[in-house]
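Bug report

Summary: structure tokens for LRC18 protein differ between web form and batch submission.
Environment: batch mode, default settings.
Steps: 1) Submit the sequence below via batch. 2) Compare with the web form result.

Sequence submitted:
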Amino acid sequence: KAKGPKGKKITLKIAKNSIRITLDGGRRLDLSKMGITTFPKCILKLADVDELDLSRNLLKKIPSSIQKFEKLRWLDLHSNQLEELPEAIGTLQNLFYLNVCNNKLTTKNLPEGLNLLKNLHVLNLGLNCLESIPTSLGALKELTEIGLFDNALTTIPNSVKKLPKLKKLNAERNPFLDSTKQEEHTDSIKRIEMLHLVQEKDLCSSCLKMCTDERDKLKKLMNVTPSRSKPSFPLLLTPNSIAKDNQEEWRLR
């Protein structure tokens, strides 16, 4: 049986020298782009860090011992070869940001523990092999941004689309069954806090004139063909072979 690449061995000394202080005073262990093929057990001795960056390596598996990183609020695993995530990831109750973009994750191997990350605000599942999204992800009530782009999705469950705090959903380049729904999914989610409906007879003459003028302006704008522009998702970028070197641009401020 052919052996895979051996990969760089990470010692405790290397790991300690890779700790950086973040802008808000936290401690980030940055082991990105180091050719790592297996999860370094020595970093379990540094489990009190706030952020862990193992992106752009050759990892195929994250062990259940990840649960020892109890303080972890930011975890970046993008651009590896992960085929599954451990169930123990659900124990990271402080996790605010999780990026597993550009891996080999399938719907079957998404752990139910993901639903337990009650403090998660940003979740990036883009560039994987997902054929569907579990409806149970609707339990992540604090989620504000989710990346689902470049998968094999044909639909997105309402429990996810209707998350109360969701502001950005990037689901571009999925084979949605209905092309109109695809455009709906890729647009930024816009929410109306309050809507008042009144009849014309209930308005004074000045208010009625103002509303009529605004309605006429809107009709004129609708008759003008707008130039189509792609929505911007600064925190849900698509990494590729020439992904940005500046890891700060991948971090959530």
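Above is the batch result. After comparison, the two runs are identical; trailing whitespace caused the diff. The beta strands are 19-21, 27-30, 51-53, 74-76, 97-99, 122-124, 145-147, 168-170. The two ends are 45 Å apart (CA to CA).
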